[in-house]
């Protein structure tokens, strides 16, 4: 539904089934920090076939790509057999496995897909260079939605989390009520004189300090949501 509204969906997924894979428009394959393929998802099998890695019949394309990258596919195994040295040892096999990523990366760098991507990125960089000559206002960070919209959705999400995990909320409310009763009992019936003013200052200091320390628990939200965000 989001994609039909014109949104661009960036999806990181591990071994999707074919019914999910065929929904993708663009596919990017990465290994060891190197791009092995970036282009239309429908052309990925054709591209790998052109560089010598044929997908077996009835094989899931997503599984096939991972097998090729990890050096586990039949195509990679066949190339190992053809190029295996006479002195077959563990070190030699490790070298072959590590070179699969380098070979795929070099194949991609020499492909027309890379050239078209490089050309598109060049246009973006050129446009960005022209914008740098404009005023500083052009460089200010802007967002698709305003502050109130962001505040609304973040608050709604936090409220849902509180409702779904009532134990922590009930405990905080109970502690607040108990402290309120204790402070109210201690400073109950304070008179309007010099000592009464000092007592009121002490009660305000105690309540303010308690509120400051109790609000530190909100940091937990940032720690938990940071992991989710990353």
Automatic annotation (TrEMBL):
<comment type="similarity">
    <text>Belongs to the ABC transporter superfamily. ABCG family. Eye pigment precursor importer (TC 3.A.1.204) subfamily.</text>
</comment>
<keyword id="KW-0812">Transmembrane</keyword>
<dbReference type="InterPro" id="IPR013525">
    <property type="entry name" value="ABC2_TM"/>
</dbReference>
<dbReference type="InterPro" id="IPR050352">
    <property type="entry name" value="ABCG_transporters"/>
</dbReference>
<keyword id="KW-0813">Transport</keyword>
<keyword id="KW-0472">Membrane</keyword>
<dbReference type="Pfam" id="PF01061">
    <property type="entry name" value="ABC2_membrane"/>
</dbReference>
<dbReference type="GO" id="GO:0005886">
    <property type="term" value="C:plasma membrane"/>
</dbReference>
<dbReference type="Pfam" id="PF19055">
    <property type="entry name" value="ABC2_membrane_7"/>
</dbReference>
<keyword id="KW-1133">Transmembrane helix</keyword>
<dbReference type="GO" id="GO:0140359">
    <property type="term" value="F:ABC-type transporter activity"/>
</dbReference>
<protein>
    <submittedName>
        <fullName>ABCG2 protein</fullName>
    </submittedName>
</protein>
<feature type="domain" description="ABC-2 type transporter transmembrane">
    <location>
        <begin position="149"/>
        <end position="229"/>
    </location>
</feature>
<feature type="transmembrane region" description="Helical">
    <location>
        <begin position="170"/>
        <end position="190"/>
    </location>
</feature>
<dbReference type="InterPro" id="IPR043926">
    <property type="entry name" value="ABCG_dom"/>
</dbReference>
<feature type="domain" description="ABC transporter family G">
    <location>
        <begin position="14"/>
        <end position="79"/>
    </location>
</feature>
